[in-house]
Amino acid sequence: MNTILIIVNIIIFLLLIMGLFMMQKKHVSFSKRIFTALGLGLVFGVIIQLIYGATSEVTIGTIDWFTIVGSGYVKLLQMIVMPLVFVSIVGAFTKLKLTKNIGKISFLVIGILLGTTAISAAVGIGSALGFGLDGIQLTQGDAEATRNMELEEKVVTVQDVTIPQQILQLIPSNPFLDLTGARPTSTIAVVIFAAFVGMAFLGVKRKDPEHGEFFAKIIDTLYAITMRIVTLVLRLTPYGIFALITKVTATSDYVAIAKLGKFVIASYVALIVMFIVHLILLSLAKLSPVRYVKKAMPTLTFAFTSRSSAGTLPLTIKTQTKDFGVSEGIANFAGSFGLSIGQNGCAGIYPAMLAVMVAPAVGINPTSPAFIITLIIVVAISSFGVAGVGGGATFAALIVLSVMNLPIEIAALVISVEPLIDMGRTALNVSGAMVSGVLTGKATGELDKEVYKQQQIVEA
């Protein structure tokens, strides 16, 4: 009987997929298809849970099949991340787009990412204090106990890592290994390697123009093919979002979420406030925040549902270049650095909130100015090297809590709402990366204001 019910669910899923496909055939805008997919996933997932329950064999079996579409789409995006980063950065050199401003661009992108992370830490502290969150009141169940054991094993790998060692981890020793994404800092390492290749090209071009020109043609061809692959994958976005959000709503533990409702609300208040800060920064740069929201929303929606900043990178770069008018070089620098440096949600708000919640347990007054200032500085510096995939926030929290000599158990006690909060954190991470690209483009004169002002969003 369960098999029949699973087959019925799959048939309904495929029919809804067909509906999204028909919308594409009728040339319905990309953004409308994205939000339609989001709505269908929310409703379909809730219905599945109401009928079968979150942990039933039917639900688990059904979602297992849906994962082919959802997780499969994320894997396709991750597949193209490293080639896209490498070819785009090198291509920026062959097209002479970064030659004059590379130092300024790097400084501005990293500076904005770290600056906004420091602000997000302050926002997280304010939200935790404003809602009166107290980690001592949280209870530990079986899942939390298991998670705590995992964290105790994981913290050994980060608690003795100094800031200079974190910086060293960004430097590639084996670029071919980093091209596989083997390390949390692989993306930044690939950016650094690509920059060296680009600078080497400039030297070869001066001494041997013929070889330089030949290499430039190879990179241009690879870039064209890579971007074509990106376009093909991005066309699958509505289907991926539909499958991902269906899984989230069908399998979420709403009872556990209700128990930690105060923490969830405080987290999302902080995330929303920080997103408003992004809009304020754009306004100060004399750029329309309304236009930013309209054009960024499809990308932020995917980041929200996928919980993967790395998986969202192709969309992040495409939105910056096609919709905001940011130059390709800056868009790739901002998107790539934003994966491992200065993630506003995962490395900023979340660790700061946990630190404030657990501080009273060890006799520290969380409202102390010295504690707050120290925490903001530690959060900003520790934001180097946070992986742009699910679990990056936990990694960041372990580093911050260890440096501040605070108990790490607090990270295990919120495990039941981790996926829900991680959705919002990932969207904020991606927004921070795009804002850093837009502001850097504006500061260096490499932002096409006419493209930014256009109302129509370029379709995938």
From TrEMBL:
InterPro entries: Na-dicarboxylate_symporter, Na:dicarbo_symporter_sf
One annotated Gene Ontology cellular component of this protein: plasma membrane
Coiled-coil spans in chain: none
GO MF assignments: L-cystine transmembrane transporter activity; symporter activity
Keyword Membrane part of the UniProt annotation: yes
Subcellular location, principal: membrane
Protein name: L-cystine uptake protein TcyP
Organism lineage string: Bacteria, Bacillati, Bacillota, Bacilli, Bacillales
